[in-house]
Recover the amino acids of this structure.
């Protein structure tokens, strides 16, 4: 059984499943995930598009639905008795499930750690007691878990296996019918409905301000697989001329001179493509208050966390104001030296993520842990 709770987990879970099946073709895999995991051959017991939420306040508002999902998944564990359980991030749900499953003696593998380095150091001890194997994808995470004792392996970041520039910037832009002399700004507001509702309006206001100063700018918005075009269209102002595309996130990232991106995995995707970016994020007021008490790192953008310093601007919560964001974006667009300097920093971040082949290395560790013979 494999459990993912959001779009990035669905992506990495799908690639792990493909690698598992390449090593052991007769494996039967069930779990919670999305479209990508289903296409990889997972029998989806619950589709994550119904529960892709973020923040403490949001979890409280959806507690009944989450509880129902949890009980459905646990009943499947009882009925099917899987040979192993793979957890992908999503700690609030997955750690509770691990506590219940541990009592049944089922091996538990945690692939892609929760962000304990940011706000949950106290969870490290709990995770250490629950898992049989910790498989991490960020280099500094290995030391965090080594201190607590669970078997831990760093396999590199699975993004390195899936990201492909797919041609030169000018060639990709032409596929979107964008003239080669017009700079492209990609808008990536996230993959959850709450992120779309909070971040996209801010991005659109910033885009309007940018367009007023630089009319030649083209804005492209790739729609995440967990979000429908209808949900996006409800927020778009036709007069802005935002180009909405589906399932072409990497093409947009590759074609853009600059990205306005929600904090999260997308910042590392952009780093792997060495595309300059500005990071924004905003949650509910309750979630922000609690986060201020818990977060222990100066930056929250993964690209800055991996770099160990701020290499891209962050505009968070009350600082996520359209005017400030637009000014930062225009400054980068108008200053080639700044963009090139940022690209060098992003290249260093990419180098820290390890070598391609993470999904296959992780799959071998999973099969070793559950005792499967690799064909």
């Amino acid at each position: 059984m494999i459990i993912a709770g959001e779009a990035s987990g669905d992506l990495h879970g799908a690639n792990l499943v493909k690698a598992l099946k390449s090593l052991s073709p007769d494996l039967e895999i069930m779990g919670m995930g999305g479209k990508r995991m289903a296409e990889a051959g997972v029998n989806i017991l619950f589709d994550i598009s119904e529960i892709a939420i973020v923040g403490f306040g949001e979890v409280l508002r959806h507690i009944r639905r989450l509880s129902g999902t949890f009980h459905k998944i646990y009943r499947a564990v009882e009925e099917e008795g899987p040979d192993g359980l793979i957890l992908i991030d999503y700690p609030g749900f997955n750690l509770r499930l691990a506590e219940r499953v541990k009592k049944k003696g089922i091996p538990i593998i945690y692939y892609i750690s929760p962000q304990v380095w940011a706000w949950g150091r106290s969870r490290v001890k709990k995770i250490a007691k629950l898992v049989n194997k910790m498989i991490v994808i960020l280099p500094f995470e290995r030391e965090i878990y080594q201190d607590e004792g669970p078997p831990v392996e760093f396999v590199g970041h699975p993004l390195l296996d899936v990201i492909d520039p797919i041609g030169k910037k000018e060639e990709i832009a032409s596929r979107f019918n964008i003239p080669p002399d017009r700079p492209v700004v990609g808008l990536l507001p996230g993959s959850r409905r709450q992120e779309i509702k909070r971040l996209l309006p801010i991005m659109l206001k910033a885009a309007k301000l940018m367009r007023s100063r630089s009319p030649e700018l083209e804005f492209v918005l790739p729609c995440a697989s967990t979000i429908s075009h209808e949900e996006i269209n409800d927020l778009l102002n036709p007069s802005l001329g935002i180009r909405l595309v589906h399932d072409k996130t990497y093409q947009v990232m590759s074609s853009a001179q600059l990205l306005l991106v929600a904090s999260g995995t997308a910042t590392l995707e952009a780093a792997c493509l060495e595309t300059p970016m500005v990071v924004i994020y905003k949650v509910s007021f309750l979630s922000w208050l609690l986060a201020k008490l818990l977060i222990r790192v100066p930056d929250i953008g993964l690209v800055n966390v991996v770099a160990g310093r701020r290499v891209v601007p962050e505009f968070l919560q009350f600082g996520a104001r359209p005017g400030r964001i637009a000014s930062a974006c225009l400054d980068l667009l108008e200053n080639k030296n700044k963009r090139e300097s940022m690209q060098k920093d992003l290249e260093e971040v990419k180098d820290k993520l390890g070598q391609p082949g993470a999904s296959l290395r992780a799959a071998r560790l999973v099969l070793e842990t559950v005792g499967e013979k690799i064909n």
About this structure: Residues 81 and 186 are 45 Å apart (CA to CA). The chain has a mean pLDDT of 87. The chain has two domains: 2-158+357-370, 169-352.
